Each structure stands twice: as C-alpha cells, then as structure tokens.
C-alpha cells in the first residue's frame, strides 16, 4: 500500500464529495422536506401539511397503479428476458467460431435509445402496418397500445429486446466458467441432456443467473422512456410506472410537494421489494445447494 | 466414426442457421428503421421491406419540408455530441481520480468515503429528481448546458468499476514507480490508465450510451428549442409531427448511427473489458 497521503486522498475524492453534497445529500434532505409541504413549484409561499400528501397518494389511482404496474412488468419482463438471454447464451456458447461476432450483434439493441425503439414499435404496430393488416386478414384485430395487457406486453417486450444481449453476455461468461471435464464425466455416466441442464449447467451458473435476475428485477423499478413515449402511462393507468407518475405529478401538474411524497413511497416500495427478491433468490439457491 | 462426424457437422450448421436467424430477428428493428427512413413516403410503415426508395425524409430533416417547418436538427445533434462527450469525460476523469484515491492512497476517512458511496448507490435516483431540478434552478443553470453536463458529471458506477480494477493492480508497480521519482498524477496517467485500456473502453461506451439516450433529465432541464438534445427533439416530434413518419425514422437513424459505429469500432476492446467487468 502507498504511504499515507491525506492531502492527495482528499484532493482526489473532492470531486465526488462536492458532487454528493450538492446533488445527493442536499436533494435527499430537501426531498423529505418537500414531501410535507403543498408547494406547487411556482408559488413563492407554501404550507406544511403534515402527512396529507402521503395519505392522498395512498388513495390515488395513479399511485396505486404505479405500485402494481411494477410487479406486472416483472411478470412480463423478467421471464421473457431470462429465457431469451439464456437461449442466446446457450446457442452462442455452442458455436466454435464467430462467437464474439454474434455476441456483439446481439448486444446492439442495448445501445438503442428508448425513444427510437418506441418510435419503431409505434410504427410497426400502427393501424395500417403490415403486421396488423395480416392479423386482421386472419380475423384478429388488436389495439396494441389501447388495451391494458397488450400495452404491458409491448413495453415489456421492448425492454426484453433491449436487455437480452447484455444479459446473454453475463450468462455466457458464466457458461465459459464451467469446466468441460464436468460435462465429459457426465457424458460417460450417461447423463441425459435434460438432466445435464438441470443438474450441472443450472447449479454451476447460479451466480451468473443471480446477477442477471437482480439486474432484471431492478430494471422494472426504473421504466420511464418507453412508457412515456408509447402510452403515457395508459390506457387507464395500465402502464403507469412510478417514474411516470412522479414525472406527471411534478412537471405536468406542478405538484412538487405531492410528487416528492410519491417519490419517497416509490423508494420505500423499491427498497422493500428488492430486499425480498434478494432474500428469495438466496433461499432458492441455498435450498438447491447451489450456493 | 465418419457418420458421427457428419452428424456433428449437420448439427453445427443447424446451430449456426438458428443463430443467424435469431440475430436477424433481433436486429430487424434497426433494419426496419433504416429501410423506412429511405422508403417512399407512401410505403412507410406499410411494408415489411419497402421497394420504392427516396431521400425525401433526410431532405425534410435537414432542409425542412413543404410546410416550411424546420427544426433545429443539426443543432440538437451537436448539442447531443457536446453534452454527451463532456459529461462522459467528466464521469471518466472523476471516476479515475476517486477510484485511485480509494484503492491506492491511504488517508484517514477513506473507509468513511467508501461506505458513503455504498450508501449513495443504494438510493434510487428518482427520489432526487425534483430537488435536483430545484437546485439546478437555484444555481441559475436551468436551460443551459451546465444543467445537462455538471449534474451528470459523476458516475458512481464508474468509480466502483475503476476501484475494483485498480485494487487488482499490484502495489509493487506503484512502489517501483515511486522509487523512480514518479508522482501520483504521473502514476495515474503513466501506469494505471494504460493498464486499464480495455475496462476504460467498456466504461466509456456504457456511460456515453447512457448519456446519449437520456430522456427524462434532458427533457426537464431545458426549455428552449436550441438547447434540446437530439433524443428529446425526436421524442417531441412524436406528437405534432406524427404525420411525418418518414422523417421520424431518418431522425432515429441520425440518433442511433453514431453510437453503433462507435461500438463496432471499439468492439474488440469492449469484449476484452467485459471479461473483467463480469467477474
């Protein structure tokens, strides 16, 4: 270790310290303060309203929907992205050549802007699009962004499209860590393909799968761009995420105090959910003896 | 044996075929975007693969259409470049500095700083959005480049990644350099940075990509047309310009292309860096 150098230590960390003071600690405290006021972002004066904002929030359809929509997105997005990225990882891992070309190709969607992917999907799902023309000819007429579950599915699918290549990269590095000899030994013992996946691949990949799952669950708490762009939280709050709700209340309805209270509730819901999900995943891994 | 060898070959070919088809499906949205940006306006969003092409969408984008409405496309494209590059440069520079202090310098309070960063990382950013906006206003940065660059000038993730990487660099390297009379700044630039090229390219690409495609922050922080980033401009075109789908796709190409080109240029280094990142 280097010699003691307090001056340089503080000098080098100072950009972060100043930043966190102005853009983390300050806002954090301010946010708690605002949550107990009825400030409207413009008026020079405001009053303290106690817990009114929180009570109002808990009763509002916007906040209630935001709470549930997060878990609905989990149900749609997490299984979809895990299956897709696992499929890509296993497929690419079995290729002797051009592996990195494929991985880079699959990673490209991750670079997309949510605005652009929403734009493309909106065009692709527009009334006269080839897809909908074909579906109507088959007697199926879906108003993709106008019906609650279809809209959830569309947004979930865009997210899954975006993250598949990224997660596949994590999973392939997990696959690459598995010793070939284990498979060879299993082959000699006459282990079937299916057993091989459940008894060897999955347990050995648990750390990579755990990372991927935590990342995927985390994503569902921060969905904004796609929803803002495609549905505006609708139809009838069906895709109204926490971020969407906070944005609308703060910057459309200009209810800064109320929106701050919602942001606190959102953070609380996020903390607790992530904590529970982590615990469940760990218990799941321990139960099966993977950890 | 010959038979099993042939079987193996067939199975591999099938595997490659599936991989290629799957890859085509995954990049199809990009193809759809490019094709529609070049498609004749009567075919935009009407055909899976258009067969009549025109440059009208790009003309409309850069020169304005028959309605005479021009939007500051080139200006917002430049805004995006300036904002993204400067933000990313700050995030990288500060990330390296802070990480070096946390991993290779000894000073009282280092553990406190370390723990504080973990505490900070724990909070979802959404809780800070409204007060951050107010602070930006108070600083007089609203509707200026400052608002788009400085509050987005520190990345905890970059600090975290660099700290982990620097910790893996043996202290002997640094001690040897010290004996040769190198100072800490020199050690940082002559030893640590050259060693971390591949991880630097990963961090750079991720940060740049994230900054380039940011919507919420950029949308809130500026109001004037000439301040908009390309992503925000594109997002705002949705409503009033919804009747011009061709130019929308051309704008999307303009937004997507730079980052994809950069990624492909960095592809090799990126892959090396990812190996470390994923450990």
TrEMBL record, chain A:
Pfam families cross-referenced by the UniProt entry: BPD_transp_1
GO biological process: transmembrane transport
InterPro entries: ABC_transporter_permease, MetI-like, MetI-like_sf
Transmembrane segments: 16-36, 73-95, 102-127, 147-170, 204-224, 256-277
GO cellular component: plasma membrane
Membrane topology: Multi-pass membrane protein
Domain called ABC transmembrane type-1: residue spans: 67-277
Name of this chain's protein: Sugar ABC transporter permease
Annotated organism of origin: Paenibacillus faecis
Localization, UniProt: Cell membrane
Family matches, as PROSITE patterns: ABC_TM1
Homology family: Belongs to the binding-protein-dependent transport system permease family.
Domain of life: Bacteria
Alphabetic keyword roster: Cell membrane, Membrane, Transmembrane, Transmembrane helix, Transport
SUPFAM superfamilies, per database record: MetI-like (SSF161098)
Automatic annotation (TrEMBL), chain B:
Cellular component GO terms held in the UniProt record: plasma membrane
Subcellular location: Cell membrane
GO biological process terms on file: transmembrane transport
Domain ABC transmembrane type-1: 77-266
Keywords in alphabetical order: Cell membrane, Membrane, Transmembrane, Transmembrane helix, Transport
Membrane-topology annotation of the record: Multi-pass membrane protein
Pfam families per UniProt: BPD_transp_1
Major localization class: membrane
Coiled-coil intervals: none
Transmembrane regions: 12-31, 81-103, 115-139, 145-166, 187-209, 248-266
Record family assignment: Belongs to the binding-protein-dependent transport system permease family.
Protein name (database record): Carbohydrate ABC transporter permease
């Amino acid at each position: 270790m280097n010699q003691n150098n307090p001056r340089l230590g503080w000098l080098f960390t100072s950009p972060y310290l100043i930043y966190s003071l102005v853009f983390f600690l300050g806002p954090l405290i301010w946010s708690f303060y605002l949550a107990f006021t009825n400030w409207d972002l413009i008026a020079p004066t405001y009053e303290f309203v106690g817990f009114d904002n929180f009570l109002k929030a808990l009763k509002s359809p916007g906040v209630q929907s935001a709470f549930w929509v997060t878990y609905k997105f989990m149900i749609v997005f997490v299984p979809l992205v895990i299956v897709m990225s696992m499929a890509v990882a296993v497929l690419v891992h079995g290729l002797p050549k051009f592996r990195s070309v494929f991985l880079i190709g699959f990673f490209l969607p991750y670079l997309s802007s949510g605005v652009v992917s929403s734009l493309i999907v909106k065009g692709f799902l527009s009334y006269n699009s080839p897809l909908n023309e074909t579906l109507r000819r088959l007697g199926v007429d879906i108003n993709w962004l106008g019906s609650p579950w279809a809209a959830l599915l569309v947004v979930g699918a865009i997210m899954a499209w975006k993250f598949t290549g990224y997660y596949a990269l994590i999973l392939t590095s997990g696959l690459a860590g598995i010793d070939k000899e284990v498979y060879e030994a299993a082959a000699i013992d006459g282990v079937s393909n299916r057993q091989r996946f459940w008894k060897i691949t999955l347990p050995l990949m648990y750390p990579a799968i755990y990372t991927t799952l935590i990342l995927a669950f985390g994503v569902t708490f921060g969905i904004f761009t796609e929803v803002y762009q495609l549905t505006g939280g609708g139809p009838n709050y069906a895709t109204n995420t926490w971020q969407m709700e906070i944005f609308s209340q703060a910057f459309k309805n200009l209810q800064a105090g109320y929106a701050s209270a919602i942001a606190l509730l959102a953070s609380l819901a996020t903390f607790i959910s992530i904590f529970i999900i982590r615990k469940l995943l760990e218990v799941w891994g321990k139960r099966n003896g993977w950890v | 044996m010959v038979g099993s060898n042939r079987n193996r070959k067939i199975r591999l070919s099938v595997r490659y075929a599936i991989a290629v088809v799957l890859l085509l499906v995954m990049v199809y949205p990009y193809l759809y975007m490019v094709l529609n940006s070049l498609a004749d306006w009567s075919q935009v969003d009407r055909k899976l693969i258009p067969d009549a092409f025109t440059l009208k969408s790009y003309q409309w984008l850069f020169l304005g259409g028959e309605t005479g409405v021009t939007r500051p496309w080139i200006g917002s494209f430049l805004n995006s470049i300036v904002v993204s590059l400067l933000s990313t440069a700050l995030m990288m520079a500060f990330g390296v500095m802070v990480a070096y202090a946390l991993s290779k310098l000894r000073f009282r309070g280092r553990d406190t700083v370390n723990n504080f960063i973990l505490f900070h990382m724990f909070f979802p950013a959404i809780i800070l959005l409204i007060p951050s906006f107010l602070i930006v206003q108070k600083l007089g940065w609203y509707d200026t480049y400052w608002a788009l660059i400085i509050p987005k000038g520190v990345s905890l993730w970059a600090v975290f990644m660099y700290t982990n990487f620097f910790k893996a660099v043996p202290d002997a390297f640094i001690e040897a350099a010290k004996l040769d009379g190198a100072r800490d700044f020199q050690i940082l630039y002559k030893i640590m940075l050259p060693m971390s090229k591949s991880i630097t390219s990963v961090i750079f690409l991720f940060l740049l990509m994230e900054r380039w495609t940011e919507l919420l922050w950029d949308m809130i922080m500026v109001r004037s047309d000439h301040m908009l980033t390309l992503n925000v401009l594109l997002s705002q075109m949705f409503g009033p310009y919804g009747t011009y789908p061709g130019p929308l796709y051309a704008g999307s190409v303009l937004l997507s292309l730079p980052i994809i080109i950069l990624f492909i240029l960095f592809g090799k280094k990126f892959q090396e860096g990812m190996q470390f990142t994923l450990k």
